[in-house]
Amino acid sequence: MWEQQIKGLLKSTALVAASKSNPGPGTSQNRSLIPIPVNDDRQFNNADGFAMVFDPAWKECLKLGELEDKSIDEKIEIVIKHLNDHPFVQSEPKQARQIAQFRVRLLEL
């Protein structure tokens, strides 16, 4: 259920403004904003791909009360259990846990 909510969050889009620097003589500086997908349903078998889904999964578990009265290690295991179909968790489970620990410390989750 909440996995679908996370995927919905990951489908959000962002607007990227073109550079305001002088592009040179004879070129137009009137550029429009282009919508690009920030995140989508693709899952990448790397640390960055894992970190991109770990943070929203942590927040969703927290919101649902799944992390109450648990140690940091227990909390990480709960979140990783929800992400067990992620290719990075499957191929590099030890490194995924190290990245999760780093994310928790970095973001003070």
Q: Can you tell me about this structure?
A:
- Residues 5-23 have low confidence and may be disordered.
- Helix 1 (2-10) packs across helix 2, helix 2 (47-63) crosses helix 3 (72-82) and helix 2 (47-63) packs across helix 5.
- Helices cover 52% and strands 7% of the residues.
- With 109 residues, the protein is mainly alpha-helical.
- It has helices at residues 2-10, 47-63, 72-82, 87-91, 93-107, and strands spanning 13-16, 34-37.
Notable characteristics:
single chain, 5 helices, mainly alpha, 109 residues, globular, 2 strands
Give the helix/strand layout:
Elements: H1 2-10, E1 13-16, E2 34-37, H2 47-63, H3 72-82, H4 87-91, H5 93-107
Antiparallel strand pairs: 1-2
Q: How would you concisely characterize the structure shown here?
A:
This protein is mainly α.
Termini Cα gap = 22 Å
Sequence of secondary-structure elements: HEEHHHH
**Rg calc:** 18 Å
Shape: globular
How many beta-strand segments? Answer: 2
Strand content: 5-15%
Helix content: 40-55%
Alpha plus pi helix count: 5
